């Protein structure tokens, strides 16, 4: 009895050691005050970078000197002294492995071990290396810090850009408005435009409703033509009467452009109006022209009063010069004219001699034409050539013939310098271009909303998020652009900004079901004349930072759950081992009895079946010919078929009995692509006769440890079944794939055949069960390969749909080392 008990104890010890060896965590047992390593499974030896021969029988800190002094001695001493287990998370250690010293991190538990007298004589450690998780967490924390620094830097940069944007908008010296639709409804008007029309513009109203006086003056036809044709229109010094709150309409002169704004499909959408009030310049020029006419009349009527005329010219607010004769000699010029070319003596010289820099201009031909025909010529915003450094100068001039005694004697030239007006218009145009370039280049969403939450400005970044061009967004309510859910999230912040307070907030914005962003947003109020008329919006995408923080939290939760599961597993291992021993013994006895019965039955049945087959052959020789008894050959054939099926059944029973013994045969590393090619050649006639397509993708995981004949049987049965149970209305297409994880090999065989119902799938792997009777078979093949797979520690599953096809998935454990 003692020997039996000792043998049983040794057997149980061996079972326990095998469980430790196969455990996916590092397990070791220490004994005595020096913590001599009594047990170390393969996992702990691999993670420590030692062989078990280098560990067993040696003290822990003798076998792992690099760990000494890192606090592990104190932890073990505490467990040995108090008997209280110690649990550690992500504790740092140094290990010499792979030829170098590495810093690693452990989650582990020290559990005290008791001797026969209930005295603590050792400790057991169960550990899991969490180096990858710790380093990933450290990297994520570092990335978060870097991202935070970048966000702060970007915030400062955006604040500076915002200040610059506000300055640019405030300094634009032009009236700007945008009109939408064929009715020309206002969607935006800047302060200068409102000032021009006495603050009558309200967003949503049409031009005809807001400014009925311009409709009467023909401007609506110009707007309609620009909208319908898509052609740019430019007007110079166009007169327009604008109504006043009190008194008669005011006369204005405008330089303006109508710029059509098509949508993304090129269809008319609206018009951008850009206008500069040049009323003062026109009035000045008109006064000059009036003065010119008066001066010419005086000169023609009173040639003899030359001195009075020259005095009048000298007082004129424009530059005046009188050119005589066909060669255009400078007969007279006032001081304003002389200032155009300071330091030059012009009296009596021809224009060409006095101004050689004008030689490249067509001016001389125009002077000749005026002198010869008497027709007036006018040049507008012409660059004045000069040899001195400095900005370009622009002039508007008139060349008009003047008479004496009814004959043309020369050309009067009246010059008005318009450099400031030209530069102002150019500055406005450049500012508009620069503003658009700056905002479009920024990787943030920049916009402007009025008090009605309607877009008045949007940069190009909006197009990437909402699929609409910036021009298309102008005039749209923010609720329609971002969606109801995102609008309700932002609404309280927008209302706060409209009270005059700057607002900064972070939020999760569900713009669409498939488009959710985490954003950091700033709302900057726009105050004009003490009233908040809208606010600027700056939106920064912080989705990546938020998701990274969430990932760190999830990893921490998963680690805590794993530690709890490991503790529960350790408690269950002891109870489960005893149940496994008893179950294994009972299964061994049952399998032996089944093998004996199957072998006996198959052996005892073979002889009677052979005798019946022989007697049937003899009987066939004595039966009457088929002409006399037509039913006889048919009955004989049916009896021979029944005997053949009986022999097949007995053979299958023998195969089933042999599976248990085959499980003990030695497994080898099988070359899956090569074996699959051999099986393809076996079923090649069936492939060709059915015109089937066979696609294979097994190069990613080409090897698995299994008896080669079993793997061949698995491939042959699955491939041949995919071809035999094909759909009659389409050529078969079969796909064979394999892939691996660290612990398993997976093989899938997919076809487009008849498919199976859920009821059929439940009966699929039953012995002698056939689900399609139109194809020859015994119903044993799938049962046999399932038994082969299960005996190898794997499993097989099927997913199928009637009329679509089936997918068989075979999963086997990987036993090769990692």
Characterise this structure.
This protein is of the alpha+beta class. Helix 6 (about 130-170) crosses helix 21 (about 545-620), helix 21 packs across helix 22 and helix 25 packs antiparallel against helix 27 (about 780-790). The chain is built from 27 helices and 27 strands. A hairpin with a 5-residue loop joins strand 9 (about 250-260) and strand 10. The strands form six sheets. Strands 2-1-5-4-3 form a five-stranded antiparallel sheet, sandwiched between helices. Strands 7-6-10-9-8 form a five-stranded antiparallel sheet. It has a five-stranded antiparallel sheet with strand order 12-11-15-14-13, sandwiched between helices.
Summarize the structure.
With 818 residues, the protein is an alpha+beta fold.
């Amino acid at each position: 009895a003692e020997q039996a008990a000792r043998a049983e104890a040794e057997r149980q010890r061996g079972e326990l050691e095998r469980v430790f060896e196969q455990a996916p965590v590092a397990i070791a047992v220490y004994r005595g005050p020096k913590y001599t390593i009594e047990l170390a499974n393969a996992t702990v030896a691999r993670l420590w970078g030692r062989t078990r021969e280098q560990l067993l029988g040696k003290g822990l800190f003798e076998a792992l000197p690099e760990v000494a002094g890192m606090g592990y001695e104190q932890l073990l001493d505490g467990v040995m002294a108090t008997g209280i287990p110690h649990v550690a998370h992500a504790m740092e250690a140094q290990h010499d492995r792979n030829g170098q010293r590495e810093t690693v991190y452990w989650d582990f538990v020290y559990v005290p071990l008791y001797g026969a007298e209930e005295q603590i004589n050792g400790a057991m450690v169960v550990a899991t290396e969490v180096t990858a998780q710790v380093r990933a967490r450290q990297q994520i924390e570092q990335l978060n810090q870097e991202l935070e620094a970048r966000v702060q830097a970007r915030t400062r940069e955006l604040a500076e850009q915002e200040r610059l944007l506000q300055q640019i908008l405030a300094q634009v010296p032009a009236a700007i408005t945008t009109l939408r639709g064929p009715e020309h409804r206002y969607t935006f008007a800047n302060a200068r435009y409102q000032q021009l029309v006495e603050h009558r513009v309200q967003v949503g109203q049409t031009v005809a409703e807001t400014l009925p006086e311009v409709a009467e003056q023909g401007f609506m036809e110009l707007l309609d033509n620009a909208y319908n044709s898509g052609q740019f229109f430019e007007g110079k010094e166009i007169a327009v009467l604008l109504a006043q709150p009190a008194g008669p309409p005011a006369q204005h002169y405008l330089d303006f452009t109508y710029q059509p704004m098509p949508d993304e499909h090129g269809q008319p959408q609206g018009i951008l109006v850009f206008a500069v009030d040049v009323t003062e310049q026109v009035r000045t020029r008109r006064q000059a022209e009036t003065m010119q006419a008066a001066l010419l009349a005086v000169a023609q009527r009173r040639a003899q009063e030359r001195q009075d005329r020259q005095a009048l010219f000298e007082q004129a607010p424009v530059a005046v010069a009188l050119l005589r004769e066909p060669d255009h000699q400078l007969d007279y010029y006032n001081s304003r004219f002389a200032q155009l070319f300071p330091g030059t003596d012009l009296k009596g010289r021809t224009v060409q001699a006095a101004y050689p820099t004008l030689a490249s201009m067509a001016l001389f031909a125009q002077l000749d034409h005026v002198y010869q025909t008497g027709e007036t010529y006018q040049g507008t915003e012409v660059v004045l050539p000069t040899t001195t450094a400095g900005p370009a100068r622009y002039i508007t001039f008139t060349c008009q013939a003047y008479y004496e005694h009814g004959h043309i004697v020369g050309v009067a030239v009246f010059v008005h310098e318009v450099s400031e007006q030209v530069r102002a218009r150019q500055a406005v145009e450049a500012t508009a271009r620069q503003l658009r370039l700056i905002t479009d280049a920024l990787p943030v969403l920049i916009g402007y909303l009025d008090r009605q939450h309607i877009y008045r400005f949007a940069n190009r970044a909006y197009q990437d998020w909402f699929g609409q061009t910036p021009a298309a967004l102008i005039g749209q309510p923010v609720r329609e652009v971002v969606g109801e859910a995102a609008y309700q999230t932002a609404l309280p912040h927008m209302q706060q900004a409209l009270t005059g307070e700057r607002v900064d907030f972070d939020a999760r914005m569900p713009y669409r079901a498939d488009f959710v962003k985490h954003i950091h947003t700033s709302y900057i109020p726009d105050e004009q004349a003490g009233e908040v008329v809208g606010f600027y919006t700056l939106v920064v995408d912080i989705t990546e930072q938020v998701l990274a923080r969430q990932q760190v939290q999830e990893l921490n939760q998963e680690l805590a759950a794993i530690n709890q599961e490991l503790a529960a597993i350790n408690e269950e291992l002891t109870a489960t081992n005893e149940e496994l021993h008893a179950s294994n013994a009972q299964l061994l006895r049952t399998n032996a009895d089944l093998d004996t019965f199957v072998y006996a039955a198959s052996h005892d049945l073979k002889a009677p079946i052979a005798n019946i087959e022989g007697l049937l052959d003899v009987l066939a020789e004595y039966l009457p010919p088929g002409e006399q008894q037509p039913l006889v050959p048919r009955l004989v054939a049916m009896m021979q078929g029944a005997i053949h099926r009986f022999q097949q059944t007995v053979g299958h029973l023998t195969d089933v009995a042999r599976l248990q013994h085959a499980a003990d045969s030695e497994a080898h590393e099988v070359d899956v692509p090569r074996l699959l090619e051999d099986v393809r050649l076996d079923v090649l006639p069936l492939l060709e006769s059915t015109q089937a397509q066979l696609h294979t993708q097994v190069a990613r995981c080409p090897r698995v440890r299994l008896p080669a004949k079993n793997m061949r049987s698995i491939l042959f049965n699955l491939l041949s079944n995919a071809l035999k149970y094909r759909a009659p209305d389409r050529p078969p297409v079969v796909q064979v794939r394999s892939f691996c994880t660290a612990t398993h090999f997976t093989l899938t065989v997919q076809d487009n055949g008849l498919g199976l119902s859920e009821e059929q799938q439940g009966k699929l792997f039953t012995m002698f069960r056939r689900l399609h009777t139109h194809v020859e078979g015994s119903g044993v093949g799938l049962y046999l390969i399932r038994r082969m797979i299960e005996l190898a520690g794997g499993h097989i599953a099927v997913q199928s749909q009637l009329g679509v096809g089936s997918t068989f998935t075979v999963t086997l454990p990987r036993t090769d080392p990692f």
